[in-house]
UniProtKB/TrEMBL annotation:
GO biological process, one term: isopentenyl diphosphate biosynthetic process, methylerythritol 4-phosphate pathway
UniProt source species: Thermoanaerobaculum aquaticum
Coiled coil: none
Positions MEP for the nucleophilic attack (site feature) positions: 152, 206
UniProt KW keywords: Isoprene biosynthesis, Lyase, Metal-binding, Multifunctional enzyme, Nucleotidyltransferase, Transferase
List of residues binding 4-CDP-2-C-methyl-D-erythritol 2-phosphate: 231-233, 257-258, 279-281, 355-358, 362, 365
Protein name in UniProt: Bifunctional enzyme IspD/IspF
Matches recorded under InterPro entries: IspD (IPR001228), IspD/F (IPR026596), IspD/TarI (IPR034683), MECDP_synthase (IPR003526), MECDP_synthase_CS (IPR020555), MECDP_synthase_sf (IPR036571), Nucleotide-diphossugar_trans (IPR029044)
All residue ranges annotated as the 2-C-methyl-D-erythritol 2,4-cyclodiphosphate synthase domain in the record: 224-377
Gene: ispDF
Gene3D superfamilies listed in its UniProt record: 2-C-methyl-D-erythritol 2,4-cyclodiphosphate synthase, Spore Coat Polysaccharide Biosynthesis Protein SpsA, Chain A
Amino acid sequence: MSPSLGLVVVAAGSSRRFGSDKLSVRLGGRTILQRAVGCLRAVFPQAPLVVVVRGEELEARAAELRELGVSAFVPGGEHRQDSVRAGVEALPLGDEALVAIHDGARPFVPAEDLRQVVAAAEETGAAVLAAPVADTVKEVDPHGRVLRTLPRERLVRSLTPQVFRVGLLRKAWQQTGPSLWTDEASLLESLGVGVKAVPGDPRNLKVTQPQDLAFLRGVFPPAMRVGQGFDVHPLVEGRPLILAGVTIPHGKGLAGHSDADVVLHAVTDAVLGACGGGDIGQHFPPSDPQWAGGPSRVFLEFAVARAREAGLSVANCDVTVLAEEPRLAPFREAMRENLAGILGVLPAAVNIKATTTEHLGFVGRGEGVAALAVVLLVGD
């Protein structure tokens, strides 16, 4: 029977070279850390998984990774190797078990690479993913002068996960004391332990500097979410007719608790629907007196903000207004520009169409106005 397997994701770094919190940057709608943890969890859904984070981020990271089945979050140490040790010791593993150690800043690891490196460690006790070096590699002195060219045929880039027999790691920690190591493979190598290099996908890149994101965004397509919304209000005397935030000259206006702008209401529901934010009535119930007669742009601004919190922004919006009268063509451009301004997009990303129902139904009888909206949200 194969030994048990535990997973450790190290995410306790300061992101100093990146300049900001790189692990929270989104790629294809998910953060870098979510993708790094998700790679392991997708292949090994039952394995205990520990994420090592900075002490002050324990609660925030737990919330971020809530749906990925993390067994425990532990605070990291002063150096990477201290964080790795804290993560390994937090796992309920015996010496014969395997532990896979992965960098939280590596969001892309193919499933087959994971299976291969674990299988190699099961056979040898220590294995790492490694990618070939494509460029010519030169050694330079402190002044930048080239000393020699190294034969790249025998050079590889060390990737993660790195997988080891837990007992080997524990023995190595006892023997080496406070020495510093850039990874656990080099620690074991220093003690004469053979480490198997398993060919890995070169796209398994560790995000270190902002320019690394340009490469990885080619791996993860942008997130896309589509939402649709519909609203209808009756036409009554004594109310202004407001559509897309523009006052339309007409003998009647739309009845409703707020300004009854059916266009902005429909678009609000579309944005909320696309980002999983519920509906307009949930956030702005007509029973709440503070919204009586209020401008509907407040509702849409709220929905756009909710989308941004989810890492999404409006790409385009298409609206159809159903009204027998008045004729909306003279006001369409003003409506379009106003709606684009609220959504935070160029007018070219917004389309407003108007049509009648050929005198059929309540719209055709001039009793009310309806609007349908479709919105596309995109995220990094």
